[in-house]
Amino acid sequence: MTNYIAVELTEFEKKMSGYIMLFNYRMTNLCVKAEPTALLPVTVALDSSEYNFEDVAVTMRPDEFTFDVYPKNQNNLQAIVRGVEEMHPEFKMEVKTEKQDDGKEIHHVVYTMPDVDKTRRDLINETSKIFHKECLAKLNVCFVKQQTQMSEAFEHLSASDVDEAKDSLKKIYEESKKQADKLLDAKLQETEEAYQHYLEGKKDDNQKDGSGFDVTKAMKLPQQ
């Protein structure tokens, strides 16, 4: 294989990888669970300057549906809240206060992912499939364009080199499509799991009366 073909294949693979990364980024920001990458695009405005989220806050993940955000500087709490709200208005927010050993109070923000009820599940699934279709379209266009671009070089190569180049090109293309399909399948599964989690929560609520008494447990108590 000539150096030219090798370079072209490397560049083609980078382009395809870029489309997959963009697709993954878009899917991650269809927030179902508390994925840390969802906070990467958040910026925080301080003193007429924009800061990356990780520069001004420390994030913990107490469970798969919750972020716990601690400002590195307590004075920046409101600016952090504004930054997150601008990017993710769907997050449920609660400001909490903790007392340290020295008696000083610190404030932090707990963000909970919105419930995935049937309406939200259907919306996320539909949007995920749209993003997937758009990603495949970009992969297809890039593949065709690359074939056209390399066709002139093929005229000056041996038949075996041409076959090898075409096989490598197609292999990169097919592997990229498989990656896109896997990302879609993972998102659909994640969304379904979150929907089932929501249904379980509703079931638990229905088993309790207004005082929080568990009706199910009461039914299992031995008769006097």
Q: Please mark out the parts with pLDDT under 50 across 5 or more consecutive residues, or reply none.
A: 211-224
Tally of contiguous helical segments: 6
Q: What would you call the structural class?
A: alpha+beta
For the report, how would you describe the main beta sheet?
A: 4 strands, antiparallel
Cα-atom radius of gyration:
25 Å
**What is the tally of beta strands?**
6
The pLDDT mean sits at 88
> What is the subunit organization of this protein?
single chain
What is the helix/strand order? HEEHEEHEEHHH
* Strand line-up across the major sheet: 3-4-6-5
Shape: elongated
Head-to-tail CA distance between termini? 86 Å
Percent in helix: 55-70%
- Portion of residues in beta strands equals 15-25%
Describe the structure.
- It is a single chain.
- With 224 residues, the chain is of the alpha+beta class.
- 58% of the residues lie in helices and 17% in strands.
- The protein is built from six helices and six strands, in the order αββαββαββααα.
- A four-stranded antiparallel β-sheet has the order 3-4-6-5.
- The radius of gyration is 25 Å and the shape is elongated.
- The N and C termini lie far apart (86 Å).
- The relative contact order is 0.13.
- The C terminus is likely disordered.
Sequence-ordered SSE layout with sheet pairings:
Elements: H1 3-28, E1 43-46, E2 49-52, H2 53-56, E3 57-63, E4 66-71, H3 77-87, E5 92-99, E6 105-112, H4 118-154, H5 159-206, H6 215-219
Antiparallel strand pairs: 1-2, 3-4, 4-6, 5-6
Helix pairs in contact: 1-4, 1-5, 4-5
